[in-house]
Structures are given as C-alpha cells and as structure tokens.
Amino acid sequence: HNATGLRIRTLATSFGGSGLLNSRPTSQRSLLLSAQPRGQQARGGRWEQHTKANYGSKRGNNYRNSGNNRRPFFDTLTPEATVYMIIAINGVVFLMWQSANGKMRSFQDTKMLRWMTANFTTMWMNLREGRIWTLITPAFSHVDTMHLLVNMFVLHSFGTDIAKTLGPKRFIAFYLGAAFCGNLISAVIRGIVLPYNTGDLRTMVQPSLGASTSVVGVTTLFACLYPNARLLLFFVVPVPAWLATVGFIGWDMANLVRSGKTKTDGAGHLGGAAAGLAYYWFRLRPLIRRMR
Fold it and tell me: What is this structure's pTM?
C-alpha cells in the first residue's frame, strides 16, 4: 500500500457513511446532513421503568469497589457523557491523521502515515499481518473533516437515545460490537469474496475507515426500537425511521453489488446494520415481550 497522499472523502447517508480511502463524494451527503430524529414513540410505563433501572450495570449504583465509596468508571458516566466521550476519541484520532498528513506534506516523512494506515484502517492485509485491533480502531478514525462531522452528528442525534435505553456500559459494548461486526464483514468481503469472484486484488489492500459501522448499527437499533419516529430528509420530507433504514440498507446492498465501481464500503455498513438488528432481535426484543 502506498500511503503517500492519503485522502478520504465521505459518502453521505442519513445514517453516516463509512469511507474508503480516495472515495468520491456523492449526493448522499445532503441526505445525511438533513436527517435528524423528530420525536420518538412512547415507550410505555414499564419500558420507562426498565430503562431507568440502571440497565447498563448489573451491579447497580450501590456497588462499592473494594469497600470504598467510589463507583467503577462506567457507572459514573451519563448517557450524554458517554456519547461525547466517543466523539472526543474520534476527534483525537482525527488530529493524529492531520499530524501524519502534515509530516508527509512538509517533510516527506511517511512513517506516521504508514503507522496510522496499519493501525486505524480496515483491510484484509492488516488482519493477515495479525493486527486484529483494526476490527475496532477504524470506528474512531476519520481523515476528512466532513466525514468526521457527519458521522458525529448522526451519532449524537441517535446515540444519546440509545445510550439512555441501554445504559453507558452496554452502549459502549454495542458500539464496539457493531464496529467489530461491520469491519470483519468488510475485510472478508473486500479481501476474499470480491477478489475471488472478480479477480481484482485491489480491494485486498484498499483501506477503509470511519465510525459508520458503529453509527449504522446505532441508527438501525434506533429504528427497531422506534420504527415510527419521524426523520426529515433534506429537513423537509418526513419519513418514518423504519422506512429510512430500509432505504439505506438497500442503497448499501446496491453499493456492495457494484463494489468495483464505487468507493463506498457497503459491506461495512451492512455489517453494522446486521449488528443492530441482531442486538434488537436476540437481546432487546425478548425483554420487551416479557414486559408486555
């Protein structure tokens, strides 16, 4: 992989776009920037009681660590603070990318740029060389300013509600799990499936990065919990959350089919969506049914 001139442009969807390096901007950017939640379904008294019962911590707020009065770190976080913490980490990694690009432009020093590519992007070659952590770290990694802003806007818009529902600890676990699922599927499809079917080996060494694997998981879970929540596309067109989710999953499937002609990592998006659906179906749906 030649790390010289590393760039990223965002594919914008209303649920965040996961970028492949050197990807082209599309009209989806306007869809992403214009989508925002407008209210949500009533959850019902029993569901409200459940979400206020410190679902994110099995030990509860009365837990004492080694006999003192200090609680574990994750039990001190609020849902809002949890989302802002993830946003802050993304901001730090973004500055690391800017520093790496600055060293390359000013001093032709590509050492840091190569290190960032090896440790903060998803591709099959990274996994083959044993860097398993790259199934997680790209979910905090952005090179392009717009890519970062769009993903963090969507994460803040939808993630706060999901963090309130799950609790901070479980929300962080879900965020990381969606990243793992999306990046693994992306690496396998782009590193094995596509080269085998097309004979084109370029996708094996094409890095992908961005929080979209996790963000799509969050927005998909939101749509499962609040399917009739109203989203405004272009800040004008009202659509229910379930319809918007189905539409953009369809868009990502189309991108996956024509992977040789698009720079969008549709496989990563679909992996994140699968994580959101699986978490709802196997974890939250049984709880909701028991509360009815």
Answer: 0.77
